[in-house]
Design brief:
The protein is α+β, with helices and mostly antiparallel strands and about 500 residues long. It is built from 14 helices and 24 strands.
């Protein structure tokens, strides 16, 4: 990467003032496209790993000097675990995770509402794996060659035309490439700049100008290592997952998970507009340690199977406690020209189903497949590939988006209708329908078309993804060559 204000490219010198119109014909080359990835989150890192495997040049740019993922708990399922197995991350994941095979729902007074027992491993061949998010992040980050990831490089703006895309960073440097991937999160600067430009041109759907929804606020943390004599559940090799759902006077849901390291992760969710704590300060201020005590003191008495929430608070490092808005939005526009959005930049899901990170990484897998099919590299083929990525992913994400809203009402909702819904689901829904839903949800397992597939696991049928056009063409050529050689 150059830090000069003029970047040389295969089509000549591009002034730092920006792209200018050109009467030259579009560049066509047999070289793979150079991919510029804004954002070193999970989606950006997984995409980088797959591009490394595919031999496609790329660079990753992260706006911060250091990424500090929230100490939140993640749960990955068979929808993404085969892809991680394909890139040799799955075995590492097993070392720092626990299988989550059941969950129990209680009232705020610890009266049993219902429970579920997961049959994921039996049906899909994979356990639902639960672990601390930073563990996965560190594992993926180490897979990226150091010279291909650049910290403190915030994308300020970009310009694109049929010759390429040029990024301008906040340090006033520029860089030229063939494709820009916005993997920079829910408040993506790439998306904001792209949408601003498209809006000025009258190309942006009105729905993409709306603000993201904010329906819930959560504050979460993880204890330090606990004494097994007092908390024996931490020694169980499987995760113990408990949901406590308050009544009308206590419109909260509080959740605990046992995680590796003899720790318990906790999460408290409040539905906006239904609790006194949801005042102006709580809604608008940043989460800082000085504010923790007041907020946490008001809910210390909440009961859990391990004692009160206050006891878990006291075991949790205060600097590791976070405040998070549960925002959600499904954007219509994922790609325009040479620019494409993945992960939270394209779709922000509620965390109720645990599928936000899964969908972000699935985006990366499918986009890698589409980029691999670009041959020769031309503006038209790039646009076709990016639109193909969106076509393969949009309806699937749309269905997940709706599911995340439904499950959020079930787990976190405290309106009268949501309480009735919860009662019906836990008391009247047949187990056979629950299993049928697991089978349906687990059928889609995208992997890279250009790599050997992970072993097929489980007993349920798998949805076959769209095959690689390039791989098919190359195999056809090999078969024709072999036939010709045999005829000689």
């Amino acid at each position: 990467m150059s830090d000069n204000n003029t970047i040389n490219s295969s089509s000549g010198s591009i002034p730092s003032g920006g792209f200018k119109g050109s009467d030259l014909p579009p560049l066509v080359t047999d070289e793979p496209p150079k991919v510029l990835i804004a954002g070193a989150g999970l989606a950006g890192l997984v995409l980088g790993i797959y591009l490394e495997e595919a031999g496609i040049p790329y660079e990753i740019f992260e706006r911060t000097a250091e990424i500090k993922p929230l100490g939140a708990i993640m749960c990955l399922t068979s929808n993404i675990l085969p892809a991680l197995e394909q890139i040799r991350v799955y075995e590492d994941l097993l070392k720092f995770s626990k299988p989550c095979r059941q969950g129990t729902f209680y009232t705020g007074d610890l009266k049993l509402i219902g429970s579920f027992a997961s049959k994921d491993e039996e049906l899909t061949g994979y356990d639902r794996l639960l672990f601390a998010r930073p563990e996965l992040y560190d594992t993926l980050f180490k897979r990226i060659p150091p010279h291909k990831i650049h910290m403190s490089k915030k994308v300020l703006s970009f310009q694109q035309n049929h010759e390429g895309v040029m990024l301008r960073f906040s340090d006033n440097t520029t860089l030229h490439g063939d494709i820009l991937v916005g993997a920079d999160g829910a408040h993506s600067s790439v998306r904001q700049h792209l949408y601003k430009t498209m809006d000025q041109q009258g190309l942006l759907p009105k729905s993409d100008n709306k603000n993201m929804n904010k329906g819930y606020i959560s504050f979460l943390g993880t204890t330090g290592p606990l004494d097994p004599a007092k908390y024996p559940a931490v020694l169980d090799p499987a995760c113990e997952n408990n949901f406590m759902i308050g009544d009308g006077a206590t419109p909260y849901t509080w959740v605990t998970f046992t995680v590796p390291g003899n720790k318990i992760c906790w999460n408290i969710i409040v539905q906006l507009g239904l609790a006194e704590v949801e005042d102006d300060q709580f809604k608008t201020s940043d989460w800082v340690p000085q504010q923790n005590k007041k907020m946490l003191d008001s809910i210390r008495h909440f009961k859990t199977p391990y004692g009160t929430m206050g006891e878990l608070f006291d075991e949790s490092p205060v600097e590791g406690i976070s405040k998070v808005y549960y925002e959600d939005m499904l954007f219509e526009t994922w790609t325009h020209g040479r620019t494409v959005l993945i992960g939270d930049a394209a779709h922000k899901l509620l965390p109720s189903t645990g599928q936000g990170a899964v969908n972000a990484m699935q985006d990366a897998v499918i986009l890698a497949n589409c980029l691999y099919d670009i041959k020769p590299t031309s503006f038209e083929n790039i646009k076709i590939a990016l639109n193909e990525y969106r076509d393969q992913r949009f309806e699937l994400v749309k269905a997940q988006y709706a599911t995340s809203h439904f499950v959020a009402k079930l787990q976190y909702g405290h309106t009268m209708w949501e309480r009735i819904l919860r009662h019906c689901i836990f008391n009247w829904l047949p187990k056979s329908l629950q299993i049928k839903q697991v089978v349906k949800d687990s059928a889609y397992r995208p992997q890279a078309n250009f790599m050997p597939e992970a072993p097929t696991r489980g007993s349920i049928p798998i949805t076959r993804q769209k095959p690689s056009r390039r791989v098919q063409e190359e195999e056809a050529k090999k078969a024709a060559a072999a036939t010709a050689a045999a005829a000689i």
